[in-house]
Specification:
The chain has four helices and no strands. By secondary structure, it is mostly helical. It has two domains: about 1-35, no CATH class; about 40-80, no CATH class.
């Protein structure tokens, strides 16, 4: 919190553990190694794994939930004929 300049920024850093500088650079979840991003990646991986189990989809990409032709959502659409 020493690097934060204003009281509001210090409070945000204290409660979220994400600095305003990282929020400005990388978005609301902070930098690539922030706890929020790590949790998001775990959730995304679990969702992709469930898609694989339920729909029989193999080689699911977990980089982004909606991006790319090999993403879980797009593979599920193709499997359902949408």
């Amino acid at each position: 919190m020493k690097t934060e300049s204003t009281v509001l920024n210090k409070k945000i850093k204290f409660f979220t553990d994400i600095s305003m500088r990282d929020m400005e650079r990388y978005g609301l979840l902070g930098g690539p190694n922030s706890d929020a991003r790590k949790i998001g990646k775990k959730v995304e991986h679990a969702v992709a794994k469930e898609f694989d189990k339920k729909l029989g989809i193999r080689d699911v990409s977990v980089r982004t939930p909606f991006g790319g032709k090999n993403s879980a959502v797009n593979k599920a659409k193709r499997a359902l004929g949408l």
